[in-house]
Design goal:
Length: 1308
Amino acid sequence: MGEDESAARGGHFGSAARGSRGVHYLAKCVLRGSAILHAVQGHIRSPYSSDIVFGKETSLELASINEDGIVQSIFEQSLFGAIKDLAILPWNNRFQEHAHKVQGKDLLVVLSDSGKLSFLTFCSTMHRGCFVAVSAYEDRFALFDVSIISDSNIGYEKISYPSENKTEGSSGQDTLGTSIRGTIWSMCFISDGTYQIEGYHSILAIVMHRKGSFINELLLFGYNRHAHAIQVISWYSETGPLAINISAIPHFPGFAILFRIGEMLLMDLRDPQNICCLHKINLNIPSLVEDRSFVEESCRALDDDEGMFNVAACALLELRDSGPDMFKVDDPMSIDSGGGKGSSSSKLVCSWTWRPGNSMDPKLIFCLDTGELYMVEIYSHTEGININLSECLYRGSPCKALLWIKCGLIAGLVEMGDGFVLKLEHAKLFYKSSIQNIAPILDVSIADYHDEKQDQMFACCGMNPEGSLRIIRSGISVERLLRTAAIYQGVTGTWTLRMKQSDPYHSFLVLSFVEETRILSVGLSFNDVTDAVGFQSDVCTLACGLFADGVLVQIHRSGIRLCLPTTSAHPGGVPLSLPICASWSPGSRTISVGAVGQNLVIIATSNPCFLSIIGVRTLSTYNFEVYEIQHVRLQYEVSCISIPLKNTNNKHIASEARLANKDHGVSHFDNFDINMAFVIGTHKPSVEVLSFANEEAFRVLATGTIAVNNALGSPISGCIPEDVRLVSVDHPYVLAGLRNGMLLRFEWPAIPEFLQSDPSRQSCLPRSCFSDYESSSSIVANLNSYNSITEQAKNCIPIFLQLIAIRRIGITPAVLVPLKDSLDADIIVLSDRPWVLHAARHSLAYTSISFQPATHVTPVCSVDCPKGVLFVAENSLHLVEMVHCKRLNVQKFSIDGTPRKVLYHSESKTLLVLRTGLGGGSCSSDVCRVDPFSGTLLSKFQCEPGETAKCMQIVKVGKEQVLVVGTSQSVGRIIMPSGEAESTKGRLIVLSLDSAQNYSEGSPLIYCSNMDVSSQAGSPFGEIVGYAAEQLSSSSHCSSQGDPCSDGIHLDEIGAGQLRLVSQATSSGAVLAVCPYLDQYVLASAGNTDVRKLELLYSDPVQRLVADCALMDCDAAVVSDRRGNISVLSCPSSLEVSEYPEKNLVLNCSFYMGETVMSIQKASISCKLPVDNVLNGSDGVERVLESSYNSVVASTLLGSVFVLIPITSEEHTLLESVQARLAVHWLTCPVLGNEHKEYRGRGLPVGVPTILDGDMLMQFLELTSLQQESVLASPGSSTLASASDLHQSPLSVNMVVQLLERIHYALN
């Protein structure tokens, strides 16, 4: 454990009086675990979609795999519980062939640590006819007969074995009157087609280890409907290898595959009373895959101890170095001790998958514990059933799960390394892509990314031979393609234009400056084509767009310019030397905003406020006239205009809106073409949806008034719309980005009938921005407000849009830029920082983009960059590409051995990595320096043979920095099972981090203990002056060839300093931790130290299996145990004189993560949101949380990253009350049936408070405003009624949202 010396310096002398007893924390998972334990596929989102569900320890991920084998994450959800098993209940397949009308989505069945069976679905209509089998670890199992119940409810009947009804004569008895008890290893239903046995409705095959037996047996159970009980039909046992699993053969009724160690058996179960084995396949055959050219060299098998594949157990047992002479160590506390292969040479099937579909020739692909993949073909003929085993098709890491997907793709999921996607072609498996998995995370280090004021995390991941160094960034990953020089000062707008509507790529990039406009051709190189396009170059462009194929329109303050570019600008241009241009001017008025659509130009002027429709007519060849079709005077100035892209698919918006209001008889969308709609924002402020047709007047379709208050109920200033967008996924809605950095979502509500039947009550509708209309066209009706509606406009009563959600994302104006020309496209929201708003999500859901703050953004689609995005930041143009192939925003550098510790050296901007488990030489451990940009290994310092580096820390000595490394020089156990230190020795090594330093024996470091000190001259490492640059990866791609998610590593010579030995000291015990103190001392934790020389300040009276700990100050520490808890320990504010010092630490608060925390680090995380009204507010809830060094970052064995941030007692009380309501509300309660307070408080003594759950609380931001009010109005959990009672006044939605927005902003 190493901490910054400032904590030690300021803690003991300055913080003792303050104490830490009143500190409250909120824990949020900022990166969910990547270790996948289960994988299933089915029709989850719709009856026709092909979806994949990854089951992790504490979350579910919905994903899909495209034809290129790229895994794309769709959605991930925390479960507030641990998954034990996962399966698909195939409603879709069962009923599709019988009646198309009842075809529906599949159900997801989850068995969890709650002890309950959970049915998860996206569908509210279900059908009857399926059984689900659930087993305990031993002695008991149950069948659930699932049936239909409407209104999203599932009916089921539970039948247990042994029966829970003690009055039944068959309770716990099989057909022979004996009770069957034992450990259940595997089970499956035998498909229909078995011989009918009277009275049995469903047959279940179970592999069971009966007590006292040396082998496992195969038992068949049947459900007897008449006796309403489960009974044993028969069993099968055969002397030989141990049976492990069983799987029914799809589309082969009555047959199953029994997996045993070293072999597979084809079982005939058609007659359940007469089980027989038809074929036996020996798996202990030599592999020929090493000679195949299509196998990736980088996919190497993991060593597996004792054939165990449970993540938690496997990690603790397998996470060992493979160094020589270390595999005999049996220290249960050490994960550094070596491990080797089990003594058994038999191969074990660890995962398998069947070919999907309805083929009558089943095919099975399975993976052995050696990482080899084989395929089995089963086919029938006149003589019976045959089975054919292929040769080895692929060799990689052993897979926890295999999943055969459409198009011949097979997904292999690895526990402690990256998975892979393979393609089955011509009876061979070819590598397609990787499935990222960063578990386990052994250590992390946080540093700023390229000085862009955004943090990134360097992580030690995996174990030898899959060890890697990962760079983890928050938000959506982007790949940086191009950055120009900082010559683009004063950019006011950016747009990308196509030459034709049907063009797949953009042709022009328009850049507007304060007094200039430039047009560049689109590509990886930008060329100026302004003169060839025809835009007026000496003005500031307000808007531009494609008016028609080959016709571009520019809008500036003085007028409108129509242009036909020449062939020199684009091959599809006019064959002339100069572009064709035509102009129009509003006269004395000044254009404030405008928008260009297909055959439609809309502008607005200020002082006076007019809204005008501009058209174009052809006079002759290359001769056009721009003219005003009509205009209307407005009561309020227009702040922004948005014209949706014309598309035939847009018409479904009108039909959906009509359907939504069908019951109310409203016909606002009758005889209305949605392609003629547009949206405006006004200074009222409001958003309004309007329409225009050549033969009609302006029609106001919908209007939404913007009235946003702060927590005190006062109106928030700056609520004028900066940008508006019409969006439609399942239904239409309007997005508005405000000038104060807020984001709003409006939706169409149901309209009460009285507004249509009773004109006298129409005054309750809000007034539009229209007032005293004037028009240059006689066809425009005079709509002089809603109080005097003309006969022509009586059927045009606008709909009052409902404000669904409000979010604060920054302080600068929020600009909305769709990623593509579609109403259902995701939208980039640009404010203080860039975000991606997920258009298909409920309410307002957005994710940060891993990019620096920018002023402007526009999507760029070119041949070289089809999914590009152009940012303007720091006066430069940045062309990036949204990397959708990466489920995780993680960069990978493969590294030899197992990386244990990582530090970021800010002076040289390099990484220091401690490695163990190295092979190929006498040295099994070293410390190396790595370039974080390229992954190049710059230098290294090797330990002595038999020595293992255990810890390291950067220590400041005067004005210089050195690296202090602690080692162990013993091949035996470090800590005995009793917890006492074994008789070992180690070294404390000091390395120079600056090649210019010249330390002598008179080093300023003076050792205060009885360690034997030696300088560089007497060290065996005195001759080491550096190593040539070494590549961390064996190939240009760090995972596998062709892996698009791997990062290329290039061998670059970088002039960084070498790791040079300064001095060393021998310790009487292994040096397990070092810590700098007061810039003068290094505290080293070593075994067999005379504790009488040390003063024990505080001690934890509770024995814990500690994974890691961090000192917050002299009175508080954060500690994690290997049971999944993270706790804050602190010293009470006052101690009794008679109290013993070893009992004076108390448990302040705790949090059950459900995962083992491997690394804890103190971090500085700012929860400050740059909001003007919050900065000026005086209310305590609106107080900005200042940057604090008391935050905690914790990484876990399963690849998760949690952040703990301190909050005040007032904020804790408020959020605790909100959490209590969310935990029981039907929209946000845990889906697996766990009681939230019990789950997060597991292992806690009674009365100890839990750390607030950020994952539960952040669900509040995903709700609509009405749903948020419903949650806060609910009574909440009875267990927290006392905490809720502390709030005498009702909870304010604004108050809660503003506080959670700051936390969301900080953690994204």
